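Aim 2, interim progress: modelling of the magnesium ion-bound target.
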Amino acid sequence: MDITQPVEQQVLSGAPTGDGPLAVYRHAVSRKLIVSDPAQAAAAERLQALWSKLRHYDPPARLARNTLLGRFLRRKPVDEAPGAEVNGLYLVGEVGRGKSMLMDMFFATAEVPRRRRIHFHAFMQEAHRRIFEWKQANPGGEDPIPPLADRIAGEAILLCFDEFQINDIADAMMLGRLFEALFERGVVVVATSNTVPDDLFRGQPGRDAFLPFIDVLKQHLDVLVLDSQQDYRRMRDATGDTWHVPPGPAARAALDRAFRALSEGAPVRPVTLTVMGRALAVPQAAGGVARFTFSDLCARNLGAGDYLAIATHFNAVVLDDIPLLTPDNHNEARRFINLIDNLYDHRVKLVASAAAQPDALYPDGTGAQAFERTASRLVEMQTEAYFGLAHLT
Ligand SMILES: Nc1ncnc2c1ncn2[C@@H]1O[C@H](COP(=O)(O)OP(=O)(O)OP(=O)(O)O)[C@@H](O)[C@H]1O
Ligand SMILES: [Mg+2]
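Predicted structure of the complex, ligand included:
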C-alpha cells in the first residue's frame, strides 16, 4: 500500500462511480489501494442494494403542516414517497474498520440529487441553532420540530451522518421527534457509529426518556455490524516527530520548533475567536497555527462549538502537556475526545506532548470506550499520509 498519498483521495479518483459503491470498493481492492476484507465487502453489498433502490430518489418537498393546504394534503396517506419504505442503514463497528470509507463510497456514488454528508456533531449544532433562531422569529410557543424537519428535508433527502453518537441530554430529547419527522418526510439516513443503537446513551441520566428514539432508529434503519478484524488506522506508519512523551524540557523544545516550522516564522500573538457570540481566547497564534496547553482547552468548560471554531480556523494545533487521565478526569477526557474529533474531521495537523502514547492515556473511566476511537485517530494523525491531507475549513 502506498502511504505517501492519502488513500481517501485515491480510492475515488478514476473509480467507476456510475456503478455504485460495490464497484468502487472492488476497484480500490484490485488497484491494491486497500486490502480485501470480507466484512467490508459484505457491507459494500448492502450499501449497493440501498444505492440501487435510491437511484433518482427525489420525493417532492412537502408543504409545511401549518398552512391550510398543507393540512388538507396531509389527510392523504403519508407514504406517497416512492422510497418511503427505505429509510436507510446504520453502519456500526469498532474504530478504524472502514465505516466512514464505505459510507463515503456510497455518498460519492449515490444518484440522489439532494444529498448531504455531515459529521453528526455539526448536524446537532446546526439543529440547535436553527431551533433557537426559529423560536426568536416565532415567539408564539409553537413546536419548532416540524418546520425544522421541513427545512432539513427540503435541503437533502439523503443524509449521511458520520459518527453518530449521543452525549447530551438536550440532543437525546430532541432527536426522537426530529428523526420521526424526517422519516415521515421520506428522508433516507445512512450513519456510521461505534455504538449499536441499544447502547446509545446507556448509563446516562435521563436514558429512559431516550428509549423511544432507539425504537425509532431500529424501526427505520437496518443495523449493519462491520466486524472486520483489523483497525486499518494502525497499518499506517507514524512519522515519529509529532507525539512527544513525556512532557518536559525536551518535549517543550520540540514543540517550540514544530510551532515555528508549521507557522513558517509568522509573528506569534494572542487572538480571539468569536463562537456563537462568545469570545474564545487563543493564547498563541501564528499564521494558521495555534498553540495551547491541554488545560487551556480541556480543563475549562469549552464545548463542541469552541472546538469546531478552532478546527476550522487553524490548520495546525500544537498542544502541550496532555496528562494521564483518570476516572476523576472524565470531563477533561470528554472534552479531549470532542477536540480530537473536530481536529481529525477537519484534517487539522496536531503536534503534542503527552504523558503516554495515545492508547494508554485514558484506560478507565466514563467514556474510556469512546476514547479508543480517539486513540486510534491520534495514531493516524501522526502519519505522513494524514499530514499530507488538505485542511477542511
Ligand atoms: N481494507 C482497507 N485496507 C486499507 N486501508 C483501509 C481499509 N479500510 C479502511 N482503511 C483505511 O483505514 C482508515 C480508517 O478507516 P475509516 O476512517 O473508514 O474507519 P472507521 O470505521 O470510520 O473508524 P472510526 O470508528 O474511528 O470513525 C482510513 O484511513 C481508511 O482509508
Ligand atoms: Mg469513521
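The CA atoms of residues 262 and 385 lie 17 Å apart. The chain is about 45% helix and 15% strand.
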